[in-house]
Design brief:
The complex is a heterodimer.
Chain A (H helix, E strand, L loop, with lengths): L6 H4 L10 H15 L9 H22 L1 H11 L14 H16 L3 H28 L3 H28 L2
Helix pairs in contact in A: 2-3, 3-4, 4-6, 4-7, 5-7, 6-7
Chain B lengths: L20 E5 L4 E8 L2 E4 L9 E2 L2 E3 L9 E3 L1 H5 L8 E2 L22 E5 L2 E6 L2 E3 L1 H20 L5 E6 L5 H13 L4 E6 H13 L3 E8 L4 E9 L2 E10 L4 H16 L7 H18 L4 E8 L2 E8 H26 L8 E5 L6 H11 L12 H13 L9 E3 L6 E5 L3 E6 L7 E7 L9 E7 L9 E8 L12 E7 L5 E7 L5 E5 L8 H9 L9 H27 L5 H20 L2 H14 L1 H15 L9
Parallel strand pairs in B: 1-11, 11-12, 13-18, 15-19
Antiparallel strand pairs in B: 1-2, 2-3, 2-4, 5-6, 5-7, 8-9, 9-10, 13-14, 14-15, 16-17, 20-21, 20-23, 22-25, 23-24, 25-26, 26-27
Classes of the chains: A mainly alpha, B alpha+beta.
């Protein structure tokens, strides 16, 4: 294993979408116990630099693996199908329709209750889409399909953040 | 007579290798130094048995002779007589320009602007906040060295979690001026959590509410098996007990119909009385405020309820920061298992009650809130210096504020989001705006707002020599690296041509290496010492460190080397040991560098092996 190993290899995990979060957290801490610069304060400068690079690499892999959407995008990349969200904006018409409806509903929502109901709806939709992503990745091995699903999920993420912003503005 | 200590074979470090490592809490109103002795962290007292050092430095007229400065209690006592030359609350000036210092005109001393850095105008000349802080740090360093009758190996210095890059850099510069080897800068609430967590063997989610003299921090941590993972941190770097004092002073003056305080000396008198009232109200329901201002006597009864009313807005501000940080951490307030109160200002009953009501549980207060930060820093310093058994303590901290780059139209492109675990590195690609553009100006900012104008400007630098291309064709990768001290460096690289530029982010308010060198020349820390002798001592210490590190690396992982590789390293070690005895500073440095270079590949192999071992014993799934 070296700094170029992929995220799954570093964490000793099979490259799959399904993942045990408690195990990931535990391994993250075990790896940082070894690599963190605090463990090498008395070492020479080169060892310290190595430790810094490893510690950064482990944190990078952890951040990516623990987020289901980034993990899915990473799996696509490993299988040679980059998500390419900036250039490829193709979406199924049904999904775009739903996006439009959500946006309209957000425009109209004026009470905290209405916004929180919306946030729950969107969280439910997101959970269903993530389950579909798992299916595409781990059962159908359809990484082209998974890339499309990731792009759709990125829309949903952005929309969730917009709802949160509105809740923040209304609450407090 | 002290008994000689003999360690159990193979159990602990050779007594000669035991390093004096301390934790320093460099506070707004007072500072402390602590160390682990006989397995227990304790604050080190001065010759009079006092552990607290008021963070106050008074400068005296050099023409009068004498030491030129008073530090701590002596300086504090002089504050009323000589407010203009007595610097208190200097922490509020660290890493700041004059314009950024809140209520700068209310300070009893004169603050000027020097090229974007706040400096204090004293009878002994202009002093930077770093120089003033260095006086305090050096006093604590000497205290530690006297306590152990040994040189200080290094220190962990605490900073408010909400300190930005400039403020952290300023703190590190101050330590360097004081001749202190900084093992790590750690966040004050994290230090407090260490002091509590290790004491109580706790597991679960904790909140640390830290209200000091001039800063407020709130951190949410998860504790599991000796790992202190900071989930989120927030606060206000310009809100503290001093503001409660100001609010109370303002209220009393309004009650008395006094519009203006005549002079700095009167302000100091007022400040002292306000503080006394605040402390009295921590134990009593009312107190009588009594001062004589410019011949006029002011007397005013203050009840606890009055105090609560005139400071309610400040307490509410802290709680709104608590709500925000809970959201960032993704933690509900009923999931928090314990709330730790830190900082002298949490002695105020109004604060304790408000925090208790918010979390629906009584806060933990069994450690002295003045000492807890220094104690936690001492525990971490001891671990970092290699004095404690390995593997029992690990801090995973975060950066408090997002870091980004200015893009077209004065907008911020966020590169490292706040609450990212450090150390971290993030990269983002940018491109050119015009055809044939050969340079790219980069402006690094810190903050959460979308507009550059609302964020803190950290640094500007330029990537030059980009080959002329059509607009949008160049691909410039900007990489932000934040180290374990929370300090940032930035590099930029044009991917096609390989043109590169990088800077350590040294903010305008920080000091350049040359400035530090110049200040060290005439500083107290080295005044009596010959710089040459000092350089040799430092080179020998480095050589020794390198030899010890290499020896222990060989003992642990010598099997990674072929016989020839081993021979080469042995020869370099022998060479260095020889030169360290009789060579000059530059010869010792060269030999140390040669050994470092000769062991580089070995170091990389060792690290890879260590990482592989980290997950040994766990089931590695089939790939």
């Amino acid at each position: 294993m070296n700094l170029q190993s992929n995220d799954f290899e570093i964490f000793g995990l099979a490259p799959a979408f399904a993942l045990d979060r408690a195990q990931l957290d535990e391994r993250w801490k075990a790896l940082q116990r070894e690599a963190h610069p605090d463990r090498h304060v008395a070492a020479d400068a080169r060892t310290q630099r190595q430790a810094m690079q490893w510690s950064v690499r482990i944190n990078e892999a952890y951040q990516r693996l623990k987020d289901p959407i980034r993990r899915a995008a990473y799996l696509c990349e490993l299988h040679g199908v980059p998500v390419d969200a900036e250039r490829n904006t193709h979406m199924p018409p049904a999904f775009l329709m739903q996006q439009l409806q959500w946006r309209e509903a957000l425009e109209e929502a004026s009470s905290l209750d209405a916004l929180e109901d919306m946030a729950d709806d969107v969280a439910g939709a997101r959970a269903r889409m993530i389950e579909q992503a798992r299916c595409l990745a781990d059962e159908q091995h359809d990484f082209g399909g998974l890339a499309g699903q990731v792009r759709a999920l990125m829309f949903v993420e952005r929309f969730s953040r917009d709802i949160e912003k509105r809740i923040d503005q209304l609450g407090q | 007579m002290a008994l000689l200590q003999i360690s159990e074979p193979g159990q602990s470090l050779d007594p000669h290798q035991r390093r004096v490592a301390v934790g320093i809490d460099l506070g707004t109103t007072h500072s402390l130094v602590a160390a682990v002795r006989h397995g227990v962290a304790e604050c080190l007292p001065d010759a009079q048995g006092r552990v607290i050092l008021p963070s106050v430095v008074r400068y005296t007229d050099p023409a009068q002779g004498g030491a030129g400065r008073q530090i701590g209690y002596e300086a504090l006592a002089a504050q009323v007589d000589d407010p203009a030359n007595t610097v208190s609350s200097v922490k509020r000036l660290m890493g700041r320009s004059r314009a950024q210092v809140v209520d700068v005109d209310k300070l009893p001393y004169r603050v000027l602007d020097d090229g974007g850095m706040a400096v204090i105008d004293t009878v002994a000349g202009r002093k930077t906040p770093m120089e003033v802080s260095a006086e305090i740090l050096a006093t604590l360093r000497f205290r530690a060295e006297d306590s152990f009758d040994d040189e200080l190996y290094g220190a962990v210095i605490t900073v408010p979690a909400y300190f930005d890059d400039a403020q952290r850099q300023a703190t590190k510069d101050a330590a360097q001026l004081a001749g202190i080897n900084v093992l790590r800068l750690i966040n004050e609430p994290t230090a407090a959590a260490i002091a509590y967590g290790l004491d109580n063997g706790s597991e679960g989610i904790y909140a640390v509410y830290d209200l000091g003299g001039g800063t407020f921090d709130i951190s949410i941590l998860r504790l599991t098996q000796g790992v202190f993972e900071v989930l989120a941190t927030g606060g206000d770097s310009a809100l503290g007990g001093d503001d409660y004092d100001q609010a109370l002073a303002g209220w009393v003056l309004r009650q008395q119909g006094v519009d203006a305080v005549p002079d700095a000396s009167a302000r100091a008198v007022l400040q002292r009385e306000v503080r006394r009232i605040k402390e009295t109200l921590s134990g009593a329901d009312s107190a009588v405020f009594q001062v004589s201002l410019g011949g006029q006597t002011i007397e005013q009864t203050v009840t606890a309820a009055d105090f609560e009313t005139c400071t309610a807005e400040l307490t509410a501000r802290t709680l709104s920061a608590v709500r925000k940080v809970l959201r960032d951490a993704g933690v509900r307030r009923d999931e928090v298992q314990g709330v730790v109160l830190v900082g002298g200002s949490t002695r105020m009953p109004v604060v304790r009650r408000a925090v208790g009501e918010f979390f629906g549980r009584d806060p933990l207060v069994n450690l002295n809130p003045d000492e807890v930060v220094a104690l936690g820093a001492a525990i971490q310093a001891n671990a970092l210096a290699g004095n404690s058994r390995a593997g029992d303590l690990l801090l995973l901290d975060v950066i408090p504020l997002s870091l980004g780059i200015e893009t077209m139209g004065g907008l911020v492109e966020r590169i490292v989001p706040r609450n990212s675990t450090i150390p971290t590195a993030r990269a983002q690609d940018f491109t050119t705006y015009q055809d044939g553009q050969t340079a790219l100006a980069l402006h690094v900012v810190q903050g959460e707002r979308d507009l550059v104008a609302d964020c803190r400007s950290l640094a500007r630098f330029t990537l030059r020599g980009i080959p002329p291309m059509a607009a949008g064709a160049a691909r410039i990768r900007v990489t932000f690296t934040v180290d374990a001290d929370g300090l940032l460096s930035v590099s930029a690289r044009e991917q096609g041509s390989g043109v590169e530029a990088r800077i350590e982010v040294k903010p305008a308010y920080g000091l350049s290496d040359e400035q530090i060198a110049a200040m060290l020349q005439d500083s107290f820390a080295t005044a009596q010492q010959d710089m040459q002798a000092r350089a040799l001592v430092e080179a020998r210490v480095d050589a020794d460190r390198m030899l010890v590190a290499t020896r222990s690396a060989l003992a642990a992982d010598g099997d990674l080397l072929s016989a020839a590789e081993r021979e080469a390293i042995d020869a370099l070690m022998q060479g260095l040991a020889q030169v360290a005895k009789e060579g000059t500073a530059s010869e010792v440095e060269a030999a140390t560098e040669a050994l470092a270079k000769g062991t580089e590949a070995f170091a990389a192999r060792r690290m890879n092996r260590g990482i592989q071992h980290a997950l040994a014993g766990r089931k590695i799934e089939e790939i």
